[in-house]
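Hi U.,

Before I forget, here's the chain from the pilot set. I'm dumping it here mostly so it's searchable later in email.
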Amino acid sequence: RGALGLAQAAVAPSAVHLAMLLFTRHVAPGLCAGAAVALAFSRTSGIALEPMHSVPADGRLRALARSLAHLRPEEDEMRLRWDRDELGWRKLPARAWPVFQPGPDDIPKIAASLCGGRCTTNVEGLLPVVLPDGSMYTRKDTASASTAASCTQQAFDLATALVFNDIDAPRGVALYTNLAETGNCIDAHVALGITFVEGLNVSTDAQRGLAHLRIACQHASAQGYYEMGTALYSGVEGALEEDERAAFQMFAAAAEQQHSAGMFMTADCLMEGVGTVVDVPRAIPLFYSAAEKGHRFARQRVREFLDESRDVPL
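Structure:
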C-alpha cells in the first residue's frame, strides 16, 4: 500500500535506504504518513545539522574497520545468534506498526471485551459493528469492570481491525477520532494521520492526516516522529515537500526513544550523508543497537559492513 515516491535529492539515497522504508512499513498492512516539521521539534533530536559532504572510499573503509573492531572477537557468535533468531529460536519484533494488528476473527472477542467492560465512552454510538459474516455485533451488557487504559487499548485494537481489514473503515475512523479527542490516545492520532495521508480504505485527505501527525509529534510520539521522517524524506504529493534534513531530524528523535526503525534510518542517513554530515563512527552503534532489537535490515547492514571491511588495516 501507498508506495513512497523516490526523493529527488542532491545526495542520492542508497537503494537499501529506499527499500528499508518500504520493507518496514508494508510487510504487514502498511502505514505511511507525514507532516510539516515545526522549528520547535529541532530541540528534541539534540543533533546539529551540518552541511553534507562526501567521504573518500578508502577513508570510509578505514572508518568502518575501526568502528567495527570491537565486534570482531564475538562476530561468529553474533552471526550464529542472529541466524538462529530467523529460524525461530527467539521471537523477533513485528515488522509493522501497530505491533498488534487484529484480523477479522479477532473482532467479536475485542467487541465483547469492550461492551462487557463499561467502556461506554469509547464505544457509545459506534455499535453495532458489522462482522465479516455480515452479522451485527450489538452486545452492550456490563458484566465486568475494565480500567480506562484497557478500554482505550481495546477500542484502538477494534478500530485497527475495522480499518486495516476494510471491514468498516468509516466506523473505525470514528472510533480512532473518539479516542484521539477523548481518550488521550496519541497512537490514535498517529493512526488517523497514516490512514488519511495514505488513503487506507478511506478517501485520501493529506491535510487532515498531517494535522493529526503534528499533534502526535507535539506529544513526542516515537512512531509519530518516524512516520513524519518517512514522509519528509519522500514528500506527500500536493501536501508536503521533500526535506531530507528535516527527515533526518525526525528519525533521530525517534531513535532517541529506542525506536528500532528510527535508529536504522538515522544510522543510514549518517552513513550515506542524507540530510546530515557523513559520520560512520556514529552510524555503526545505531545500526548495531537496532540489529540487537531484531531489526532485520540493520542486521543485514552490519553483516555487510563486517564483510566489506574485514581485511582493511586499522
